[in-house]
Amino acid sequence: MKKDYMARLERTARWRLPPEEVEDVIADYRDIVGDEELRRSLGKPRDVIAPLTPQKTYHIWLAVFIALAACALLPALSALPGMWHLWYLFRRLTFCVLPLDVYNLSISSATALPFLGIAGALVWFRWKGGGKRGRLSPAVPALLAAAGVWSAAVLAADCFWMRDPIAFSEMWGQMPLYFLGVRIGPSGYMVSRSFHILLGALEWGGFAMALLSVFALVKARTQDRRWAAVYILALTAVLLSAESLALVSNMEISESGFEWLAPTLRVWIVYAGAGFVGAGATLC
Q: What's the N-to-C CA distance of the chain in angstroms?
């Protein structure tokens, strides 16, 4: 009970307090919690830490956290099946208040957000994010490897698709199209099975990487700033997934218009390299 209470109090303190103050506060309360009689007089960890929290500094951190989390979640959410229907409905319901066409954004326009997130995480966690705490958690290299493998898999799938999109679409034949378990389209309407699988993998894989990046963001604040490396590499995977999804789902690409795809792939490889460099800089 004592150990569990101290762990919760430490997490709360690291979330709410500036890094330069948190160690002293934790040391003080570790002595208090060690005394059974004094520990009983303490309230919930949140109630204990709240009076010590500098509100301005804490609100700045919350704003940074929301902004960095949005840089990962918005591109990933916008790519999920059915989200464009929600955006369209929201636009129709609010057109009197917001007449500008602010919701009719392509997936590719949303990929600017990961760049902002990567830059913001590098600046914040190298400047305000606190220091390293002991040995690096084994989960950090494992999750870095997972994000790196996903990024490599996306680039490999892109390369395979770019070499011959027509052959790729015919590779596994045709299948009916379903949305939320309901078959859609006219009678006999079929889609490429390999293309449909690729779209689903990019949509849900990008979303999984976005959730991983937010998880790493919380860990970077409450445990060790080196977790920000996982955030950066997972955000790079979100970027590659969203860019790839925008390209392969572009219905305006003609059969004779694939000459520019190889330079596009090289640009994405540069994106991936920048993500790995940023993650390495955060680990140092």
A: 36
Q: What is the pLDDT of residues 162-208, one digit of tens each?
A: 877 778 877 888 877 766 666 676 677 677 788 888 888 998 999 99
Say how far apart CA 249 and CA 165 lie, in whole Å: 11
Q: What's the pLDDT tens digit per position in 220-237?
A: 998 888 999 999 999 999
Structural domain for 142, as ranges = 114-283
Distances (CA, A) of 100 to 94, 95, 104: 10, 8, 9
Instruction: Inform me whether the pLDDT recorded for 143 exceeds 60.
Output: yes
The whole-angstrom separation of Cα 161 and Cα 155 is 10
Q: Is the pLDDT of residue 158 over 50?
A: yes
Residue 11 lies in a domain: no
CB neighbour class for 173 (10 Å; exposed up to 12, middle 13-18, buried from 19): exposed
**Residue 93, C-beta contacts closer than 8 angstroms, at least 6 positions apart:** none
Q: Helix H segments across 50-110?
A: 55-78, 83-94, 107-110
Q: How many domains does the chain have?
A: 1
Cα 234 from Cα 238, distance rounded (Å): 6
